[in-house]
């Protein structure tokens, strides 16, 4: 067995891979939310549609998309492996069980939060990503050319109360997941120091609030406007 296989199959290696894929997905969330903010531009969807077209046709973006898909799969698979390993390592709970004294609620329920987010991700991809790539999309023409009108599809989708509620609730789950995952990723990579760890913790909390809130604001804005 090579050193790569040994590393990836060790507990430390799995945690490192979870951290690296998690941080990459955090970068993806930043780019994704910034692009989606174009929904608020008030230009009838032109900027958003042009952005969506760029994201589905640019070759560099396509390479980054493949890396993102792989990161999601690895993050999910290794989280399942680590959860299973931890349960096997301690099949019998401690006699005195007071988990809240030593850990946060979200840190103890990362598996559940991750599963709920994964379910949401499947719904999201089917509703928008799949439709953008292979669905029968309406089209709109600007002076810059003809584009798939994803803006119209998004506006139509978010007229459904259940879908708006699903997105908002899922963003709450994402916030809890990020609140622990952000700091945990840096800790697993050994990036702990008394000088900058408090800043990382602050940044993690801020990120876990701001980014999910921005995502949740989009379906709410469309529905109520």
Key descriptive features of the protein:
single chain, 225 residues, mainly alpha, 3 helical TM bundles of succinate and fumarate reductases, two-stranded antiparallel ribbon, 9 helices, 2 strands
Strand tally: 2
Number of helices: 9
Helix content: over 70%
Kindly report the name of the CATH homologous superfamily. Fumarate reductase/succinate dehydrogenase, transmembrane subunit
CATH architecture: Up-down Bundle
From the N-terminal CA to the C-terminal CA, the straight-line distance is: 59 Å
Q: What is the CATH third-level topology name?
A: 3 helical TM bundles of succinate and fumarate reductases
Question: Helices and strands: which structural class?
Answer: mainly alpha
Structure in a nutshell:
The protein is mainly alpha-helical and 225 residues long.
Which secondary structure elements does this structure contain, and how are they paired or packed?
Blueprint: H1 3-8, H2 11-36, H3 46-57, H4 59-89, H5 105-108, H6 110-134, E1 139-142, E2 145-148, H7 150-157, H8 161-188, H9 197-224
Keywords: Membrane, Transmembrane, Transmembrane helix
InterPro entries: Cytochrome_b-558, SQR/QFR_C/D
Transmembrane segments: 16-40, 60-81, 110-130, 162-182, 202-224
Describe the structure.
This protein is mainly alpha-helical. The protein has a single domain, classed as Fumarate reductase/succinate dehydrogenase, transmembrane subunit (3 helical TM bundles of succinate and fumarate reductases, Up-down Bundle). 75% of the residues lie in helices and 4% in strands. The protein is built from nine helices and two strands; from the N terminus they run ααααααββααα. The protein has a two-stranded antiparallel ribbon with strand order 1-2. Strand 1 and strand 2 form a beta hairpin. Helix 2 packs across helix 4 and helix 8 packs antiparallel against helix 9. 19% of the residues are buried. The model has no long low-confidence stretch (mean pLDDT 89). Keywords: Membrane, Transmembrane, Transmembrane helix.
């Amino acid at each position: 067995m090579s050193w790569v296989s040994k590393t990836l199959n060790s507990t430390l290696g799995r945690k490192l891979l979870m951290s690296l894929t998690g941080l990459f997905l955090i970068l993806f969330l930043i780019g994704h939310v910034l692009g989606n903010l174009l929904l608020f531009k008030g230009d009838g969807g032109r900027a958003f549609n042009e952005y969506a077209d760029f994201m589905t046709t640019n070759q560099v973006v396509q390479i980054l998309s493949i890396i993102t898909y792989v990161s999601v799969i690895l993050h999910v698979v290794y989280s399942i492996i680590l959860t299973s390993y931890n349960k096997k390592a301690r099949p019998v709970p401690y006699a005195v069980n007071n988990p809240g004294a030593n850990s946060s609620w979200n840190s103890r329920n990362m598996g559940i939060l991750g599963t709920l987010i994964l379910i949401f991700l499947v719904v999201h991809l089917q509703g928008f990503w799949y439709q953008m790539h292979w669905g029968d999309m309406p089209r709109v023409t600007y002076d810059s050319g003809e584009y798939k009108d994803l803006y119209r599809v998004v506006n139509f989708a978010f007229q459904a109360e259940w879908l708006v509620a699903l997105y908002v609730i899922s963003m709450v789950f994402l916030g809890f997941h990020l609140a622990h995952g952000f700091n945990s990723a840096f800790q697993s990579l050994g990036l702990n120091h008394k000088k900058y760890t408090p800043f990382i913790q602050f940044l993690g909390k801020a990120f876990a609030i701001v980014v999910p809130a921005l995502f949740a604001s989009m379906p709410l804005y469309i529905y109520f406007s």
